[in-house]
Amino acid sequence: MSPDHGRDRLLDRMVIPGYSRLGLILRRRRWAPDDPRPSALVGRTALVTGAGSGLGEATALGLARLGARVHLLVRSTERAAPALERIRLALAADGIEPDLHIEECDLSDLSAVSDFGARWCAHGDGTRPIDVLVHNAGVMPSERTKSVDGHELSVATHVLGPIRLTESLLPALGRSTSGARVVFVASGGMYTQSLPASDPEYRRGRYRGAVAYARSKRMQVELVPLLARRWAEQQLTVAAMHPGWVDTPGIAASLPQFSSLTRPLLRSPAEGADTAVWLAATDPAPPSGRFWHDRTQRPTNYRTATRTDPADLERFRTWTASTTGIDL
């Protein structure tokens, strides 16, 4: 192990330096200045969920800056309009005329997700490809809330909806001439949780929004290798990443005390989005089915207590397949 690798792993395990701006400052010194190339996504199409603010907006901006045609998939086109204008202004300052579009869909509503995918794939002559799909949409309800389909809202938004959306868009993703890339924006908070295979809908115990969020992010990370295998035939590269601690409107609203105490250490949305943009644009494509932070593959567990038992993973796989109607 090189000294740099050892220091990087130590930063990651210490959490505070690794997830904060400090970790990013130390790590990016080793990154190639031309990775990804400035024109890496010219002629490519990207779809970013939850792109109306925060990490999603920063991801959309980063992809557009690399030349992508970017579609912002949001719950409300009206609420996302300011984000679209901010992206336009930021790129105009760099002399870039972006190709941006807003699409509307509630990721927690599985029927709406399927309908959106069907509409996209039926557009025009049905050959509109997608080269990059970033699953960023997120929620952190303060009390247990059900989606329109009756599922716990965090699981519906972070797990069931993204899987159904990707599956619905497979014809478009499969038409990418470069091999499409699917990125799940997870959270370092998932390290605190084991896979809740026996209670994925959080029906037992006292409900806490931050815990529900972390549990659903653990689900995402555990599913990524299974999804990579399922979608390998379509030449999809599937990845999960976590952005570190980021100063976003969602964090400020959901975890005000954490946000206030850690604000000097928090990353900007652009810094948090960096790895998602890198995964979408670096050449060659990164290996599929892995978990990343700061452009480096990371372990999915640091504690024995949170390691996933194969029997639990199988139970969760079965539940997910049954709930989404998709054989994993």
Gist?
The chain is α/β, with parallel strands linked by helices and 328 residues long.
Give the helices and strands as they follow along the chain.
HHHEHEHEHEHHEHEHHHEEH
What would the average pLDDT be, to the nearest integer?
93
Low-confidence stretches at least 5 residues in length (pLDDT < 50)? none
Give the beta-strand count: 8
Spatial arrangement of strands, main beta sheet: 3-2-1-4-5-6-7-8
- Give the overall form: globular
Estimate the strand proportion. Answer: 5-15%
The biggest beta sheet is recorded as: 8 strands, mixed
Tell me the radius of gyration: 19 Å
* Structural class determined from secondary elements: alpha/beta
Into which percent range does the helicity of residues fall? 40-55%
Cα distance, first to last residue? 36 Å
Architecture overview:
The protein has 328 residues and is α/β, with parallel strands linked by helices. The chain is 45% helix and 11% strand. The protein contains 13 helices and eight strands. An eight-stranded mixed beta sheet has the order 3-2-1-4-5-6-7-8, with helices on both faces. It starts with a helix and ends with a helix. The model has no long low-confidence stretch (mean pLDDT 93).
